[in-house]
Amino acid sequence: MDENIRIQIEAAAFRGLVEHLQRRTDVQNIDLMNLAGFCRNCLSKWYRNAAAERGVEMSYDQARETIYGMSYTEWKDRYQQEATPEQARRFEETLPLHAFVSGHSGGS
Q1: Residues 27-62: tens digit of each pLDDT
Q2: Pairwise CA distance, residues 3 & 24, whole Å
Q3: What does the radius of gyration of the chain's CA atoms come to, in whole angstroms?
Q4: How far apart, in whole angstroms, are the C-alpha atoms of residue 95 and residue 35?
Q5: Neighbours of 24 (CB within 10 A)
Q6: What is the DSSP annotation of 7-76?
Q7: Within a 10 A sphere around the Cβ of 33, how many other Cβ atoms?
Q8: CA torsion through residues 9, 15, 16, 18, sign
Q9: Sign of the four-CA dihedral 100, 27, 18, 70
Q10: How confident is the model at residue 107 (pLDDT cuts 50, 70, 90)?
């Protein structure tokens, strides 16, 4: 496969993932972390890091707005629920499996 086509396909898949996460406001970040080891915030950090690697300055808030489709504050006010004790316990239990970029002391 041509490198340019591969990049276009990867970019389209990424946009599909972002659109899906923007539609699925019922899915809490803590559930994503507990099940998959990453969440919207991790994806925002990956996005920001990729921009920085290409010389593009971007704040974490700007990256989150790209991923969330709105400011993080607005998303939290509209959709974020308080973590249950079980979710918090599971979060700590799965910490070694969390994406390294997540800012937690998880894995790679």
Answers
A1: 999 999 999 999 999 999 999 999 999 999 999 999
A2: 32
A3: 15
A4: 11
A5: 11
A6: HHHHHHHHHHHHHHHHH-TTS-HHHHHHHHS--HHHHHHHHHHHHHHTT----HHHHHHHHHSS-HHHHH
A7: 25
A8: positive
A9: negative
A10: very low
